[in-house]
Design goal:
The chain is an all-alpha fold and 308 residues long. 58% of the residues lie in helices and 2% in strands. Helix 2 runs parallel beside helix 7, helix 2 packs across helix 10 and helix 11 crosses helix 13. The protein is globular and about 60 Å long. About 7% of the residues have low confidence. It binds zinc ion. Zinc ion binds next to helix 3.
Amino acid sequence: MGLEELAVRLNDSDYINWLKAGRCLLILKAALHPFVTQRTRAFHGNLLNQDSLLKEPCANSACRPRGNTLSSACRACSQWQTVILRHHRQRNTTVNWGNCFPPHWRTDHWELAKAYMPRGQGKVKGADQCDASALLNLISHCDCFHTVDLKVVTEVIRYRNELMHSCELCVRDEWMRHFQVALKNILRHFSHVPQMETAGRQMEEMLAADLSMQVSGLDGVDSVDLDGIEFDSVSQQAETSADSIGQWEAELLQERLQELLGADDGDDAKTQDIEQLKMLGGFLQANTDLSQRFSTELRAIKSLEARE
Ligand SMILES: [Zn+2]
């Protein structure tokens, strides 16, 4: 299970901060996705009702993005492109056409939504599979969310990027305090979304929880002894049990790996990304449990390093 190694990682309070902040973003994402799905579906339906050209099926099997560009698309797909740009909240922006499969724009609202997201969303099929960054970017880029205050959303995106781009996977207490303010603001801003109340409570519990105590040293009545480290198996809330800490830790690391490895489509891999990948690879390698879980990704990192 690797719980011993997890316990060691949880000796570092800045790493715990990193995990907790990441967990809060997972909670935020889960709370937002029904709202985002509903809003995006309605937007897609409205577009179809307003423009009969959009109802025509794609007429050209070559309507596929090359890298991040989509050129010489058929009449219907070109019209979708025009409409997508028209509804972009930020003018003169780069649309990540590489996220989209244009022949599905007509039938799938999520294929449309992906045009407003950061790159690397090609394989994602719905809001529930997106990370917080993808959902928040959609909200800040598509004008079907015009009632949402951009400032509140971009603030959380900024913290999310700082968190995920932190090479050491660590954030300080002071950073956490600012982050919590940004979270409170976004929760308040979306207070009309029914899931937000529970999300706020879950975040508060998460931020107050003593994660290191969950994994080590509790005098549990019914505890399991693993190589001298005790794991309390009673009276712990499911949310913060050692297993679930390990699970969301893996989810966050996976998100970061996907972002970095997904960015490597050919000549686009940035030197900075490679450096971050190396550091992340080193971290995974230093922990047997993580290096086993992410063995495929570690191989991909090694082959990238070899190409340099
Ligand atoms: Zn087409």
